[in-house]
Amino acid sequence: MKRIFSVLLLLVLVGIQAQTKYFPQVFFDKNKAQEQINYGKSTLMGVASTKQKNEFGFKPPLGKKLYPAEGTVVMLFPVTPYFEEFYALRKKYEKKPGHTVYMSEEAFKYRIETLTGPKGTFTFERLKPGKYYLETIVDFTAKGSYTEQTARTDTYNGYGNFLYSTPVYQTFFYNYAAANRESKFIEIKADGELKEINL
């Protein structure tokens, strides 16, 4: 009975951990955020792309570039103290199982969106000088592989006596749906600037 209780307690604790949520505690100044995303004279032009991660979870520098489908949303947020704390929390917790970082609904409203064109191109117009954060999710079809033993080869000596057996392996390839988040901080320093980036 004591063992069953311990197992149930462990499951409850795991469930509680799975629901751990974090929100920035810094005050969100909506007036400052609105002022930063008001109209200016600058233009930001970019190209969004990603690469399939290798078995170690890294994107190889020489890997093939994969572009988002046309019409993929690219978001631009003003970098406020609230957003800086949100980003720091996400960087700290997002890879830990059972931890999720959220932005308030009000803060999420203060953003600008655009859609990608051919080959991941996108444009933000009429921006003011300031610091911004860009983010998009690139969906793509990834390729994977696995190796499986499919047979064995037996070896015999000249008298027909069995010596040893060698496994035969075959590699199988498959496709699966995947998505990477691509993001970047940028700064527009002068009103009327034309800035070009790769996201």
UniProtKB/TrEMBL annotation:
SUPFAM superfamilies: Hypothetical protein PA1324 (SSF117074). Keywords: Signal. Residues 1-18 form the signal peptide. This is Carboxypeptidase regulatory-like domain-containing protein. The lineage of its organism: Bacteria, Pseudomonadati, Bacteroidota, Flavobacteriia, Flavobacteriales.
